[in-house]
Write a structure and sequence with these properties.
By secondary structure, the chain is mainly β. Helices cover 7% and strands 59% of the residues. A 10-stranded antiparallel barrel has the order 1-2-3-4-5-6-7-9-10-11. The two termini are 25 Å apart.
Length: 173
């Protein structure tokens, strides 16, 4: 299997060198990491039909990154709830496929941190106008040491309101 050394490093270009060691590690497959997150779920009743991480102030979390021919497979567990997605790198975009959804994200280096800015959504392959789809914003910043990083991810929708917000520190094992 002939895989790119690190698609996130290629996407960031020379700015990769400005990132904190833990932030670079968070974007470097293969990776195994664990942490504890604070997870909040929205209160809209329709959210019960969406598989979301369990809410809590100290949710045990694991992360596995594996480079595969199609991109980078992300396997997360939130207190036992498994969530798998695939990051496919398309030029300067990350297209994240999870179930029937595909999200386009732009990775923006900001000093030692990275922002993942949501720029598009597809449902079952059909594009959803940005104003009608979910909005996702993720921030990865330096952690307490060179093997850790902090994450802050917010997902919301104009009709459903807040969907999910998780934040905390993750550390490579």
């Amino acid at each position: 299997m002939n895989l790119v050394s690190n698609p996130y490093e290629e996407m960031a270009g020379p700015a990769w060198a400005t990132l904190a060691p833990g932030v670079r590690l968070a974007h470097s497959p293969p990776l195994s990491a664990t942490g504890v997150l604070r997870i909040l779920k929205g209160t809209n009743r329709l959210l019960r039909f969406i598989a979301l991480p369990p809410p809590g102030d100290a949710v045990a979390t694991t992360l596995e990154l594996e480079q595969v021919p199609e991109g980078v497979k992300w396997t997360r567990t939130f207190d036992g709830m498994r969530a798998v997605s695939l990051h496919m790198i398309r030029g300067h975009e990350i297209q994240e496929r999870a179930g029937p959804f595909r999200l386009a994200l732009r990775m923006v280096v900001d000093g030692q941190s990275v922002w993942h800015r949501h720029i598009g959504t597809w449902f079952l392959g059909v594009p959803i106008p940005k104003a009608l789809g979910p909005q996702v914003k993720g921030h990865v910043s330096p952690g307490s040491d060179d093997r850790s990083w902090r994450i802050d991810v917010k997902i919301w929708h104009f009709l459903l309101g807040p969907i999910c917000h998780y934040q905390g520190e993750i550390r490579a094992v």
